[in-house]
């Protein structure tokens, strides 16, 4: 049995079904309804279940002023993004994305155009998510009959990045981007090279680096220890890369109180090696 817990607006209600809170959307679904009323299931267009640790009061406040067409476009974009990224995204993305779209439209109407301060870095580090954001912007402009500028792509990109980073809100994607920037600088300084950030090798390196950083911040480590002989081979064959990996680990330990295992240093050394070979050859 699905009961109304709180009316958010005419098109959105916070509902409860067998003890589980969910947000239900549909044209007119919140019109003249009260707590404990049965949800009119024939009016349901979209349903999603927020993360268990979500601040429902905050989400309710965000949703109150958002029209149904913007919520529908947000849900459509999230579904599209999950297919393109081949991963499940945070269930809260529908709310945060619709809130972003709503205020972007308001800014556009007021002729206020913002540029993300990390736009260049975002373009380099999150190319896959940026392509999804480009599709999302096209969907917004088509479905909502507007013309939001390309500068919105960077902001949308970070929503898709955040939605994949299932760890403490303390570490937002802006901070993740800053960490990647600093690590790239460590590598460039250590090897005295300039890194071409437009290559597939760099994109693969950043992908590995992101997951490595997520594990560090969540304090999750590989419990399967590599063969000690293999570790020694890597140390002997790639001594400069291993020392560079140690510098990166020191940076993370000093600034984020994380600890890298020998396994992680080995994998990181191998990825650094590929990056260095490509850029030293030029």
Automatic annotation (TrEMBL):
This is Transcriptional antiterminator, BglG family. It comes from the Bacteria. Gene3D superfamilies: CAT RNA-binding domain, PRD domain. Residues 65-170, 171-282 form the PRD domain. It comes from Isobaculum melis. It holds the Pfam family CAT_RBD. The lineage of its organism: Bacteria, Bacillati, Bacillota, Bacilli, Lactobacillales. SMART domains: CAT_RBD. Keywords: Repeat. PANTHER family: CRYPTIC BETA-GLUCOSIDE BGL OPERON ANTITERMINATOR. GO terms for molecular function: RNA binding. InterPro entries: BglG_antiterminators (IPR050661), CAT_RNA-bd_dom (IPR004341), CAT_RNA-bd_dom_sf (IPR036650), PRD (IPR011608), PRD_sf (IPR036634). GO terms for biological process: regulation of DNA-templated transcription.
């Amino acid at each position: 049995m699905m009961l109304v817990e709180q009316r958010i607006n005419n098109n959105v209600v916070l509902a409860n079904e067998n003890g589980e809170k969910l947000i239900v959307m549909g044209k007119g679904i919140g019109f003249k309804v009260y707590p404990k009323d049965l949800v009119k299931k024939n009016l349901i267009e979209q349903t999603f279940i927020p993360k268990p640790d979500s601040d429902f009061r905050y989400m309710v406040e965000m949703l109150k002023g958002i029209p149904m067409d913007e919520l529908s476009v947000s849900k459509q974009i999230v579904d599209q993004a999950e297919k393109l990224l081949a991963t499940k995204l945070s269930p809260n993305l529908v709310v945060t994305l619709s809130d972003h779209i709503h205020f972007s439209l308001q800014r556009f109407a007021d002729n206020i155009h913002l540029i993300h301060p990390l736009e260049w870095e975002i373009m380099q580090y999150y190319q896959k998510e940026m392509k999804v954001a480009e599709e999302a912007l096209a969907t917004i402009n088509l479905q909502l009959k507007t013309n939001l500028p390309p500068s919105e792509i960077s902001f949308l990109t970070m929503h898709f990045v955040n939605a994949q980073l299932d760890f403490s809100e303390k570490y937002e994607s802006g901070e993740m981007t800053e960490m990647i920037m600093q690590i790239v600088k460590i590598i460039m300084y250590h090897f005295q090279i300039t890194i071409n950030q437009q290559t597939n090798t760099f994109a693969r390196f950043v992908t590995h680096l992101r997951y490595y950083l997520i594990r560090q911040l969540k304090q999750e480590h590989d419990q399967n220890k590599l063969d000690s002989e293999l570790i020694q081979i890597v140390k002997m064959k790639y001594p400069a890369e291993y020392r560079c990996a140690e510098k990166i680990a020191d940076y993370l330990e000093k600034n984020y109180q994380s600890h890298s295992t020998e396994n992680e240093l080995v994998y990181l050394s191998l990825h650094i090696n590929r990056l260095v070979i490509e850029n030293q050859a030029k």
